Amino acid sequence: MIPRILIATTCVLLLPATACSQAETPPAAAIETASGELIIRDRSAAGSASLHQGREGVVIRIEADDLPQDARNQWHGVHLHSIGDCSSEDFTSSAGHINPSGRQHGLLNPEGPDNADLPNIWVDGDGSIRAEVYTTRVSLNGSDALPALLDEDGSALVIHAGSDDQTSQPIGGAGARIACAVITAT
């Protein structure tokens, strides 16, 4: 049996460098779409979120029906949360906003926005939502400059009880979490 060190030395001396290097794992194919089932606090399905990676950002489509009576005919804050977990009754298992750079909350905040900030959405009188928003502050796969929605612990889309004022901390006064969707690759 030849000692391991001798094999390595022989490889370096006798073979081109590329022949000795370990085979590189090809990069995983970039994920282009993701989705999540939107649930409300009673754990019933209320709709869905679909996400599509674009060249410079992510398009998020939110569709829901029959949201609770007290959520109707008003604006609601929507944010991307840092953990893909909607298991707790109040959806706090999704943790806080995706915000690796520590920026202030709010699309209108001069010290913001953080990566999780999205525009408000409207819930109609029948409890339905049909909205599409675009963000350049995250990506499905991540990059040197942007956090990944589909990282190791995932992420969630959360709808809050009230409108986000887009400036105050930490969530623009948007209130409790009323709906949540774990984002997964499709």
TrEMBL record:
The UniProt catalytic activity note for this protein reads: 2 superoxide + 2 H(+) = H2O2 + O2
Task: Tell me the cofactor note.
Answer: Binds 1 copper ion per subunit. Binds 1 zinc ion per subunit.
- Write down the EC number: 1.15.1.1
Q: What is this protein called?
A: Superoxide dismutase [Cu-Zn]
Per the UniProt entry, the signal peptide is: 1-23
Q: Which domain of life is it from?
A: Bacteria
Per its Swiss-Prot or TrEMBL entry, what cofactor is needed? Cu cation; Zn(2+)
Q: What InterPro entries does its record include?
A: SOD-like_Cu/Zn_dom_sf, SOD_Cu/Zn_/chaperone, SOD_Cu/Zn_BS, SOD_Cu_Zn_dom
**Lineage start:** Bacteria, Pseudomonadati, Pseudomonadota, Alphaproteobacteria, Maricaulales
Functional note? Destroys radicals which are normally produced within the cells and which are toxic to biological systems.
What's in the keyword line of the UniProt record? Answer: Copper, Metal-binding, Oxidoreductase, Signal, Zinc
Q: Does the keyword Signal apply?
A: yes
Q: Which family does it belong to?
A: Belongs to the Cu-Zn superoxide dismutase family.
GO MF terms here are:
copper ion binding; superoxide dismutase activity
Residues forming the Superoxide dismutase copper/zinc binding domain are 47-183
